[in-house]
Amino acid sequence: MITVQAKLIFESYEDRQKTLELMRRWSSCMRFAYKRLLEGFDRNSLKRELQGIFDLNSRYVDDAIMKAKAVLESCKQRGEDPRKAIFGGRPLFEKLKKRHINGKPYKKLKIEWQEKRKGNLYSRGDRSKKGNLNTRIVVNKSGTFLRINIGDRKYVFARLSAGYKKDKDRRQILQEIAALGVPYSVELKLKNGNVYAYFSVEELFPAIEITRENGAIGIDTNAYPNHMAWVEVDRSGQFISYGKIPMPELESGTSDRREYYRWQYAHEIVKIAKEKRKAIVIERLNIKDKGTRGDFSGRKSRRIRHFFSYRSLLYKIRILAKREGIEVIEVNPAYTSVIGMLKFAPQFMISKDIASAYVIARRGLGKKERIPANYMELLSRLDTSSLEELKEYVRKEVKNANLKKRQIKEIEYVMSKIQSPGSEPGRLFAPLGGTSAISCSESYNLWRVLRVAVVTPLSPDRVLRDMSVLKRILVSGQVGGPEIGASSCFLG
């Protein structure tokens, strides 16, 4: 969707008052419909009743019912009580209720709350009417206007002003929308005594010309340090080139400033994909606040995550790519960092962020990653006694304050899932193609076990950054005795 904002300039005071009265009646209609929906009324019965009560045509009433239903569904999805919804904003309502502000500041808050409560109007577009019947963009020699239906086949015309600097571009967009005859929705809002119109139209993207048939560009976003890693692969998933885009501007600053730089970084990625004629593969992120016991435990980490805004950046990449006719593929990001760290970082001597982007690119092409044979051989040599030694070693290291909570939580989880095979002696992990001898209460991924069994003994007191030490395991399947004093039986 494309949304264009414009300020309404009325030709007379009477036209402005008629529009404000229409907005007040529509807002009241929407609140009334919300209450009736809570009581179980259906749309058809409400539509006939509300037209007579608020003196609105059927289209306005239908839009009011749709908005009320959207608010009701939103409350239910958030787990809130729909009966306690406050139109106009709960924060402003709580401030006004406490009466801790007097004089002009109180009057200003009250006016702001009344504007949010009563100064709204929404009108949906209609393809059969080639635009919007109640609020239509009209272009003539005098300029660009919004024609507002105030009832009884009477109309009010307001000039559309989009600001001094952007007036020309936005006016041109509005004129193109009116000329194409596509359906567009219009929402009027009253702010600081001025009426603003928001025009939303579904964007028509060109046909996809750059597809995964030519290869792909994998994108891995990282909040700490702020950068975006990308890797280019060919159609068979072979490594071609890579790079990093530092993004220090996303660590702080105003919301508008960060939004501007997100668009700039998205343009850089799309430019690279367009020049190389490759599709773009991004992560399907589901960012959640995991609290003090999850991945985002520290104050600094939460601040960086807040300013970075993964979802907003990837959304911009997706939109810009579609405008350029570039295919965008979303993949599940599970285990991409672990696989990249253990398998590809030592092979190509690259950082784990670049390796993670490589895994994402290959996954976008439908490639699946297998655990290297030497890693499986290493795991297969784990017998019961060595497993107990590994568990005892990990238990001691977990108590070490140098380990981060994220590492401790992961290690404890994996160790709790690995159990002795009981009376069946010998190996816990059968080689590829063999029968599994793992005894678990629930299924888990061998990549997680491999990370604990290999990486933790090599780097128990810090996050392992240099993955080159794993290359000798991949090549020979052997690794020297660790200097930290851990048993070498589970290190080959």
TrEMBL record:
Keyword DNA-binding on entry: yes
UniProtKB keywords: DNA-binding
Cross-referenced InterPro entries: Cas12f1-like_TNB, Transposase_put_N
Protein name: IS200/IS605 family accessory protein TnpB-related protein
Species for this entry: Caldicellulosiruptor morganii
NCBIfam families recorded: IS200/IS605 family accessory protein TnpB-like domain, tspaseT_teng_N
Domain of life: Bacteria
